[in-house]
From TrEMBL:
Residues 1-124 form the N-acetyltransferase domain. This is GNAT family N-acetyltransferase. It comes from Pseudoduganella ginsengisoli. GO terms for molecular function: acyltransferase activity, transferring groups other than amino-acyl groups. Coiled coil: none annotated. It holds the Pfam family Acetyltransf_1. Keywords: Transferase. It comes from the Bacteria. CDD domains: NAT_SF. Transmembrane segments: none annotated.
Amino acid sequence: MIGDGLDAYNQQALGYTDRRPLSVVVRDPDTGDAIGGITGRTSLGLAFLDLFYLPDSQRGAGLGTKILQAFEDEARRRGCSSAVLYTISFQAPGFYEKNGWVRFGEISSEREGVSRVFMTKKLDLPQRA
């Protein structure tokens, strides 16, 4: 509903709208149930990573990096040249930095030592032949 209104406004202002969801889902191989992954969206050449979760049992073996790479690759295919996200200081800023993301802001919370960390990454678009 809110997204539809925003799409209509963008359509009127720009002559088009291109906001699309972008998800990478990790499924339990036995049940097929979703157990983690990324949700986000793309719009106007920018990818937004909204949520990223993997259960503890799936961390540490490179799966998170593969999922993040899949998200970035799909964003590139859609013509995105940059991506943005925020994480919380106790969650995963180091993981994102190891994968080429750069901090561009931080906002403290009411909880001492806890902040929201805003990050971005340039997504080099594939070269066209």
